[in-house]
Write a structure and sequence with these properties.
The complex is a heterodimer of chains A (about 400) and B (about 80).
Chain A: E1 10-19, E2 22-23, H1 25-33, E3 39-41, E4 54-56, H2 70-73, H3 78-94, E5 107-112, H4 118-130, H5 140-144, H6 148-157, E6 163-166, H7 172-185, E7 191-198, H8 203-212, E8 235-243, H9 244-249, E9 256-265, H10 275-289, E10 298-300, H11 307-321, E11 329-331, H12 334-337, H13 344-358, E12 360-361, E13 384-385, E14 390-397, E15 401-409
Parallel strand pairs in A: 5-6, 5-7, 10-11, 10-14
Antiparallel strand pairs in A: 1-2, 1-8, 1-9, 3-4, 7-8, 9-15, 12-13, 14-15
Helix pairs in contact in A: 1-13, 3-6, 10-11
Chain B: H1 3-17, H2 37-51, H3 68-84
The chains are: A alpha/beta (about 400), B mainly alpha (about 80).
């Protein structure tokens, strides 16, 4: 991948999150470094009818009315509630004032989501088809549309730069963050609000996932021989990206640098991953960031806990890193926050930033049985204190889509 | 399993794999019959719909190595459970 203007480096100056581990990026990070899993019994009005019994859900203590006014709230699907709340936290942390020096015009908003306003869609379908109502709610369209989260953030903060949604199933977050970083590199923006959101634990979506037969019935056990599939999650994480010089000039606290990225497609199968495709994305990210394999200390793996992903990802890491693969710490935090689909990569970037900041790699929880086909150091069950100079964050999607971020310690 | 039930099952497999029903043997694996991962999930769905049964989740953990015989057994088990209700 060609590097943009190499003089225009991109840093992260704010992060916010809503996750099954609680409200706020710190709640998420503290949970992960403690190895705490938020996977529990599925709380759902139709739980009795469903075969899926477990999920990683945002706790009921999340109260969107706490910081979103009523007039805005009626416009929002749960997806956008998560995104707007997380954006508020990220922007507050960055201390950016978009009304000053025309910054609002120079700020982009790119928010990933796998499916968008699924809760609204499900509710309205129930109304029309199950209850035979002849009327859909008048705000259905503005709640459902995939770009709703990006647009609501733009409106809330007067952000007038390029604003849109990115959808690539479970790689949506990383693809979105890459788009945002690219725009700063190429001079289209000086700041960007980016990340991803997902709230898809509806009856219809849960039934559809059941039919695919990839859901675990016990818990999420990435890279463990007794793994039985993925566990669905939900949540959002939003970041403030900023041009390095812009952040330095105002004395901002820099959390980390988005140093490079790689994107590829397998072009093989709609669901079965390919090690060649994902390793190529990792190699691109390294090259783009100017990193040699031995510069990387940690990989936050895609690590879904399915048979196919975990062995293929292991092979891919070996292909991309060669001998250095054995010296990498690799962990899947999905074992704790679940698989938030389009939002996963965003929750995982919080984990990477936390690991760099605190010098602690979060573990892979529930890894209790070694799989000979998964032979890397997955930091089983207990966090590991170690310096992290640079890290990769992997996201791979159904459809054979791979997006990898290379993150460096704050300069 | 009755011959009719087995015949119905074989017909579903033949239709999904687009093969002659005569080449399906109990010992064939789905992979042998050219049924790859996603088609296997679809096959399971077709079987569930046809017999109005639900396979337990982990039934499909490793479709490729599943044999036709294991499907026959699974259908029989699910039909027995249904009859017992």
């Amino acid at each position: 991948m060609t590097q943009g203007n190499p003089m225009r480096r991109v840093v992260i100056t704010g992060m916010g999150a809503i996750s099954p581990l609680g409200v706020g990026a710190e709640a998420l990070w503290q949970g992960l470094r403690e190895g705490r899993s938020a996977i529990g019994p599925l709380q759902h009005p139709d739980a009795d009818r469903l075969r899926v019994k477990i999920a990683a859900q945002v706790p009921a203590s999340f109260d969107p009315t706490a910081d979103i006014d009523e007039r805005t709230l009626i416009m929002l699907d749960r997806t956008s509630e998560f995104a707007l709340h997380a954006a508020r936290e990220a922007i507050a942390q960055s201390r950016l004032d978009f009304s000053q020096n025309g910054l609002g015009v120079r700020t982009a908003v790119v928010v990933g989501t796998g499916v968008g306003g699924e809760t609204t869609q499900d509710e309205q379908s129930r109304r029309l088809y199950a209850e035979n109502s002849n009327r859909a709610h008048p705000l259905t369209i503005v709640r459902v549309m995939t770009n709703a989260s990006a647009s609501q953030i733009s409106i809330a903060y007067g952000l007038r730069g390029p604003t849109f949604a990115v959808a690539s199933a479970c790689a949506s977050a990383n693809h979105a963050i890459i788009q945002a970083a690219q725009m700063i590199r190429y001079g289209m923006a000086d700041a960007a609000i980016t990340g991803a959101t997902e709230a898809c634990l509806t009856y219809g979506a849960l039934r559809s996932w059941e039919a695919m037969r990839v859901l675990a019935d016990d818990t999420c056990r990435p890279f463990s021989a007794n793994r039985r599939g993925l566990v669905l999650g939900e949540g959002a994480a939003i970041f403030v990206l900023e041009l390095l010089e812009h952040a330095q000039a105002r004395g901002a606290t820099i959390l980390a640098e988005v140093a490079g990225f790689g994107m590829t497609a397998d072009a093989t199968d709609i669901v079965m991953p390919s090690a060649e495709g994902s390793s190529a994305a990792m190699s691109q990210a390294l090259a783009d960031a100017g990193l040699a394999p031995q510069d990387v200390d940690y990989i936050n793996a895609h690590g879904t806990g399915t048979q196919a992903n975990d062995t293929t990802e292991t092979k891919a890491i070996r292909l991309a890193f060669g001998e250095h693969a054995d010296r990498l710490a690799v962990s899947s935090t999905k074992s704790m926050h679940g698989h938030a689909l389009g939002a996963s990569g965003a929750l995982e970037l919080v984990a990477v930033i936390g690991a760099m900041r605190d010098g602690v790699v979060p573990p892979t929880a529930n890894l209790d049985k070694v799989d000979p086909a998964c032979d890397l150091d997955y930091v089983p069950n207990v966090a590991r204190p170690m310096p992290v100079r640079a890290a990769l964050s992997n996201s791979f999607a159904f459809g054979g889509l791979n997006a990898v971020l290379a993150i460096k310690h704050a300069p | 399993m009755t011959d009719t039930t087995q015949q119905e099952l074989f017909d579903i497999i033949a239709k999904q794999a687009k093969i002659d029903v005569a080449i399906i043997k109990p010992e064939s694996t789905l992979k042998d019959l050219g049924i790859a991962s996603l088609e296997a999930i679809e096959l399971i769905f077709d079987i569930e719909e046809h017999f109005d049964i639900t396979f337990p989740d982990q039934q499909g953990a490793n479709f490729d190595s599943d044999t036709v015989q294991s499907l026959i057994d699974a259908v029989q088990k699910a039909l027995d459970e249904k009859a017992a209700k």
